[in-house]
């Protein structure tokens, strides 16, 4: 009778130790996956910000290049653009 009680107790303790060990390993795996996902999301966010900045920069550069320079002494002065802008405004 005492042998069967000892066997049952050892099985219970073994199951407890196994469950705690499994829980520890499973938690580490889930934590590692969550850390990788956070890192991936951060990289995606930075890529999105960079692409938005590039689009905004291109838009501003396009606006600057289409602006008419009315100062004839400026190296960016274009007589044709200036005359067309005067023609459109009239």
Key terms:
mainly alpha; 90 residues; 0% strand
Task: Summarize this entry quickly.
Helix content is 84%, strand content 0%. By secondary structure, it is mainly alpha-helical.
Give me the secondary-structure topology.
Elements: H1 2-66, H2 79-89
Structure write-up:
Helix content is 84%, strand content 0%. With 90 residues, it is an all-alpha fold. The mean pLDDT is 89.
What low-confidence regions span 5 or more consecutive residues with pLDDT below 50?
none
Taken in chain order, the helices and strands follow as: HH
**Strand-residue fraction?**
under 5%
How would you characterize the largest beta sheet? none
What integer is the average pLDDT? 89
N-C termini distance: 111 Å
Radius of gyration: 36 Å
Task: Report the total helices.
Answer: 2
Could you give the count of β-strands?
0
Helix amount: over 70%
The structural class is mainly alpha
Which descriptor suits the 3D outline?
A: rod-shaped
Protein name: F1F0 ATP synthase subunit e, mitochondrial
């Amino acid at each position: 009778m005492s042998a069967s009680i000892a066997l049952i107790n050892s099985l219970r303790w073994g199951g407890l130790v196994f469950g705690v060990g499994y829980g520890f390993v499973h938690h580490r795996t889930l934590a590692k996956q969550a850390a990788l996902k956070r890192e991936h999301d951060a990289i995606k966010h930075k890529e999105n910000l960079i692409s938005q900045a590039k689009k905004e920069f291109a838009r501003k550069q396009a606006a600057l290049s289409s602006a008419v320079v009315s100062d004839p002494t400026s190296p960016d002065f274009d007589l044709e653009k200036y005359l067309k802008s005067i023609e459109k405004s009239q």
